[in-house]
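Final report, Chapter 2: Outcomes

The project's central promise was a pipeline that accepts a single protein chain and returns its three-dimensional structure in a standardized token representation, suitable for archiving and comparison. That pipeline is now operational. To close this chapter, we reproduce one record exactly as it appears in the project archive, with the input sequence first and the structure output second.
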Amino acid sequence: MKYLLVALPLMILSACEPPQGGEPVTRTRIDGQAEATPSPTPSETPLVASQVESACRSIIFEDTSLTHCLAVPSRHRIRMALASDEGVTYRSLSAYSRSRDPVEMAFAMNAGMYDEEGQPIGYFVVNSERLKALNTNDGEGNFHLKPNGVFFGTGDSWEIRTTEDFLANVSDRPEFGTQSGPMLVIDGKIHPEISQDGPSRLVRNGVGIDDRGRAHFVISNAPISFGKLARFYRDELKVSDALYLDGNVSGLWNPATDRLDTGAPIGPIVAVERKVSDDE
């Protein structure tokens, strides 16, 4: 499964990804195809990309194209999403995008592993309501490659902890939370079971928290190993903790650049919303 590659130099937060005015918008898809749709004219819909700066930047790391999206507590709020108010599980970023005003959104990604019905298999909290309890079971697959972990937060405070740490030290229910695995970086060190550059290569995404409390969401635009993704978090983003969210089904909705990835059904979604100031 492939993405379109964007040939850009390695620079963190270096350049926006907006399409050229008047040119067709290319939507990347999980299956590697591209579908061109005309850019809307001012008389049809607001040009979101011209009004809102993208929170996401395309970069190259060790010859692999990545998209790095930055959430800043002073400018963004984070929520989890799974289903509509009617209880219908979204199962895609396309369905979720139809429920939201794109001007309010910074970006959204898939955010954790799930069962055949799209329900999270680990801890999951939406609007302070716990939909799934913490999963401490042993098992096979990436989720159970321990230590796994929890990405969670309330208000402007966002954290990533290993599942064991979360169980031992977090007693208050957060406003949002999702459990996934494995951890990519733990206290500044790469997960002990992750090799330098293993044979498993998939489109993958993750999240990391830096020492300023900012959340770094990364999705590869081409197949990538666990080791390379973990190194990017440790060496380039300098985060102390990073959590793998998923692979193969990974997707991004970035309204500012009209990117809306499609593909296999997904489950949990993380939504990063813009905080609107009084003068906007």
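Archive annotation: The CA atoms of residues 108 and 271 lie 4 Å apart.
This record, like all others produced under the grant, will remain available to the consortium after the project formally closes.
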